[in-house]
Amino acid sequence: MELMEAMARSGHERVVAALDERSGLRAWIALHNTRRGPTYGGIRIWRYRDEEEAAADALRLSRAMTWKCVLAGVAGGGAKTVVMGDRILDRPAAMAALGRHIESLGGVYRAGPDIGFTEADRRALAAETRWLAHHGDRLRPAGEATAEGAEWGLRAALRAVRGSDALRGVTVAVQGLGSVGLALARRLLAAGARVIGADTNPEAAQEAAVAGVEVVDAGRIHEVEADVFAPCALGGTLHDVSIPRLSGKVVAGCANNVLARPEHAHLLQRRGVLYVPDFVLNSGALIEGAGYERTGRTDWSAELRRIGETVAAVIQRARSEHVTTVEAALRMAQEILDRERQSIRGLPAERSA
After folding, report:
1. I want to staple 183 with a disulfide (CB 3.0 to 4.6 A). Which of 118, 147, 300, 305 is the partner?
2. pTM to 2 decimals?
3. In this structure, are 183 and 209 located in the same domain?
4. 249 included as an active-site residue
């Protein structure tokens, strides 16, 4: 009953329990909005306390994916799969079973990578389903596309705060040095920024150090002196304890659901910190993967650069309406959805104030 109520409140259309006793698969597939086209969303494999926590994460993440699609100009809606990683008994078999569940949805859901999802998982999944997003021999890794788009969004935030989008001389603290965080760190280093990073995985931290990142203990990353804090690990890392420890004036990272609670956007604003909503900033892989699927084109650099323009528009909207950047971004997304619905009904779209 609680799950049904949560679905109703968040506007979800469908939630599927994907179970396979033999392999130990216990997963939720959440489809938020199928009216705009196919749904897109990664597969997250993580340790959850129980099914309720896993389902709640799927609902949060899939709804954010709809906002991401809308603001990125992608003709699709949001989805997400969360897998209870510590319940798995046979991982290849579990991924194969999940692939069969995804295939049974008939293409309404296009799955991609998320935290905990490996290349071996992708191969096992691909043996059972055609419906994989950002997948093809001609495409680069999804993390590279996400990082490229995030760089343009970060530059737009710097321009709003400092009057210049130059990265030379800027210090960025990157939390999480996985496929996205390390790709972003490398781009920032190439542009002349100083990058301080942290990761709980020693191997990831070592690889980042070789690339030129100044690696610190993961417990210290919030308190290092930096102009920008870029959370690129798990969500929920900005909360009552961590926010007061930030030294910079910009938060711009690629992790999903960075804020522990929605009201933390207000806490950042009161502290004079410009927060770039993650669902605006981290849409690079979505743009590139969905675009490749639709057209076969591999170069989406122009579209990724426009993420910076969207970030600038969100910041301007937030300032002019005296709201948080999250509220501004959601208003922009809702207006687009409203115009689309009016167009379908044959009604003239209302002009925004």
Report:
1. 147
2. 0.90
3. yes
4. no
